[in-house]
Predict the 3D structure of the following.
Amino acid sequence: MIDFHCHIDLYPDPLAVLDEVDARGTYVLAVTTTPKAWRGTKKLVGDRQRVRVALGLHPELVAQRYQEVPLLCGLLPEAPYVGEIGIDGSPPHRGSLDLQKSVFDRILAECATHGGRVMTIHSRGAATAVLDALERQPDAGVPILHWFSGTMRELERAVQIGCWFSIGPAMLRSRKGRELAAAMPLDRLLTETDAPFARDGENPLMPWQAYDCLGELETISNLGMGALALQMKRNLKRLGQYKQSPRLTKSAPLSG
């Protein structure tokens, strides 16, 4: 099982969740919302073999925490995974859009300077702005658009420039989410939960529930759940072979 976007440190009892992740053999990318949280989350995760920690600055926090951008840039040489980063154009955060764009541009430029990174990216209400930034920094690394909610035209553009996507049970509950997922290339798709923010009824989703979306994906892709699970594993392995920054083109190789 693969959960490629999970806020492990924000669960009420993250150590219990991590122990269960180990027991179930789940691969997790633990994203962080501020650079100051990165080292603490790495310490929390310890030497667990299937959990990686991404260095992030959530766009919703940029207005309050933009002073941490130099810290993020200083930690970047130690962090092969970057996230959660991006731009949020939803009404509560439009007032900081210019600052968000500037911060995102700087992070992408720093990623390019250090040879590229695997990046998990937030683009709610700002898909075009995110894609514009990625096109300005084609050597930033591998962009994975998490819980993508843009238009079909924006999705087509994202696919064209080489973006990957992560989808989860919460995303596929909506008709729009299913329509977008159906148009995403299966060889650039990973599963996620975005937990503990995304929930299963009254409870937060757990990392091992990321594959709960495969049932819906089976319906829209005409592939069986076993084949889909195998495809996710292949995708993760291919992403793990990423060593140097590819150009963000449709045919960009991810190994080398």
Q: What stands out?
A: The chain has one domain: 2-240. The chain has a mean pLDDT of 93. The two ends are 26 Å apart (CA to CA).
